[in-house]
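As a warm-up, study this chain.
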Amino acid sequence: KQWYQRRVAITAGNAAIELNVKNNDTLARCRNIIGVINGKMEPDRYVLIGVHRDAWIHGAVDPVSGMSTILEISRALADDLKKGWRPRRTIIFASWDAEEPGIMGSFEFVEDFMVNLKHKAVAYINMDSAAGGTQMLKMKSTPNMISLLYKAASETDSPKLPYKNMYDFWIGTEKEYNDKDYELPLVQLIGSGSDYTAFLQEVGVSCVDFAYKSNYGTYPTYHTQYDTYEWLSTFGDQNFTYQKYRLRLCVDTTA
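Now compare it with the structure written out below.
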């Protein structure tokens, strides 16, 4: 093992802060975990659903809230498979490694299967930091997927009254918390920052990122030692109700 230590002095007015950074520079193996359900009508067309599983520390929200959702989706679809159901297109579930150090696991996957993905991937759905709040939906997407998100949201029940469905919840909570009276639900154009990056930037695959957010922005325990199960179950999503409805929205979008 090689240890690198750096000392940085920061001054602000009459105050001085000394920051000691100590990094362990070692090589480690990166492992992605992939599960596949072959499609019935278009088996050579892929819909990918993924999230990274590595975390800065505990990672109850980022990324476990997303990873647990994907596990539940795969379990439910596996039950349907036993009853004879099969999706139209092939669904690929991905648990990415090494996202936090530099989005490495998903990039390596895309680079390894670049030609195949360019010709056969239909869409990539990302579930990172899925339960960072319960006030509003935080949706990112490429433009061509927005109408599909609206349709899926209108067919998914709302986790909160008086909203009838997820579409009403999506647009209504912007009015409720931010006093924003949008004609259509707000969708942020997707770019970079999580495992959708390589799919969008390297092979041009349509991408969506599902998450809840708080009305004050990023949840306060993000990338800290306090991103724990206790915080998530007490403050983030007490009964995991919102995760359940987001799961349904993801399935409706995938189907």
